[in-house]
Design brief:
This protein is an all-alpha fold and 405 residues long. It is built from 15 helices and no strands. The longest helix has 28 residues.
Length: 405
């Protein structure tokens, strides 16, 4: 399982593109969005996206660190992330204030979105990253990750892996013990309800460590054995059952209180805001199983490999331009989600199948619009070209502008 194989870079790009597509569906906030929300266990696309961003960052920054300081590179990337965040913040601010229906829809779903209806109040805090409403709290998180990246990579260069990882674990424990430590006013910097940086840095640092070790040392950190595969299968199965059994019990009305009772026991372990330990274990198990399966893809039938080649190429194209795609998807999802909601209100008697088909169509159109916006952004025209395995220095995943997110 050599992380440096070109095919594995392509797989990372495809995974990032897949997580991006899942995030688009989740952020639309429609009925079919449930498809991507914790259906395989206690994790969402966000965990995978953050981990892979750290992984690619470790690969890229690890290589760059061999030539000198990476401080300027990270600082330039921080500037690009900040400009992207401010651009989408202003666009969302305009959308909310020019459409009362859209503003009402999203402020009902997210209370913090309601503050956007007062631009004089939130504009300056937003520019200073002191105000981060829902959907606009991701890129600031990556800004923090990039700011600590030189110190993290520097620690790995000095073989202080254990110290760096121990500090990361300690910070994670602080986030679990004091989840409100950084919380100020609603939507305040680093205190957003969805992603607490104290907890989520754990995945980013672990991703950077794995990426750095694979790039700089050529190390395989976890040797797959039968016992480890069985353990990972057990953990993944436990996550799948424990997350979905309450949903099933609720649907078949086994006990009206069963989901709530279960939730009380597992809330601390599965806390999404602080990245509870159950989420980490569930993600680690599934990630391990995936990369074990990726170690030998020849088991896939030839027809199946040909059948998924086009979707995989599309996902790789999207994954290599994740910053542009992520920036573009927020206003698109806001408009699409409002449109679906308004259509449902206007057609309350629409059959279930027709509703699902309609929402899938809107989702597909949203992906096309996002891809078109990314294309217009000047991300490149490699989508239609046959993407072949290439050496590391020519692979899109290794480009520094695509390292994070």
């Amino acid at each position: 399982m050599n992380l440096l194989q070109a095919s594995r870079y392509s797989a990372i790009d495809a995974l990032r593109g897949g997580f991006m597509a899942a995030i688009v569906l989740a952020h639309m906030g429609v009925f079919i969005s449930r498809i991507t929300f914790e259906t395989v266990g206690w994790l969402t696309a966000a965990e995978g996206f953050v981990f892979l961003s750290g992984l690619v960052g470790g690969l890229v920054l690890g290589r760059k660190s061999e030539r000198g300081s990476i401080g300027r590179l990270c600082l330039a990337r921080v500037g690009k992330l900040y400009l992207s965040h401010i651009t989408v913040f202003v666009i969302v601010l305009l959308l909310v204030n020019f459409s009362d229906g859209l503003a009402e829809h999203w402020s009902t779903r997210f209370a913090s979105m309601g503050d956007l209806r007062y631009p004089g109040k939130v504009l300056m805090p937003g520019l200073l990253l002191l105000f981060q409403p829902d959907l606009l709290n991701i890129l600031p998180l990556y800004i923090v990750f990039l700011m600590i990246a030189p110190m993290v990579i520097g620690g790995f260069q000095r073989n202080l892996d254990r110290t760096v990882l121990a500090i990361s674990v300690a910070v994670w424990f602080v986030g679990q013990a004091m989840p409100d430590l950084l919380t100020g006013t609603p939507g305040a910097y680093l205190g957003v309800a969805t992603f607490n940086v104290l907890g989520w840095q754990f995945l980013d640092v672990r991703g950077m460590w794995i990426g750095y070790c694979g790039m700089h040392r050529g190390e395989l950190l976890v040797q797959p054995t039968r016992g480890k595969v069985v353990l990972a299968l057990l953990i993944a199965s436990l996550g799948l059952v424990s997350r979905n059994l309450p949903r099933f019990a609720d649907m078949v009305a086994i006990s009206p209180n069963f989901p709530q009772v279960t939730g009380e026991y597992v809330a601390a372990l599965t806390n999404r805001s602080t990245l509870g330990v159950a989420r980490i274990l569930n993600f680690a198990a599934l990630a391990f199983l995936f990369f074990v399966a990726l170690g030998d893809t020849v088991w896939l039938p030839a027809k199946l490999r040909r059948g998924i080649s086009w979707p995989c190429r599309a996902l790789k194209w999207l994954g290599r331009r994740s910053l542009q795609a992520f920036t573009a998807h927020i206003p698109v999802c806001m408009v699409a989600g409002y449109f679906v909601s308004a259509f449902a209100i206007a057609h309350p008697d629409l059959p279930f199948v027709a509703k699902v088909v309609f929402q899938l169509g809107v989702y597909a159109l949203s992906l096309i619009i996002i891809a078109a916006l990314v294309w217009c952004w000047g991300a490149g025209s490699g989508f239609l070209a046959q993407q072949r395995s290439a050496p590391l220095k020519n692979d899109g995943a290794s480009a520094p502008e695509n390292a994070v997110p």
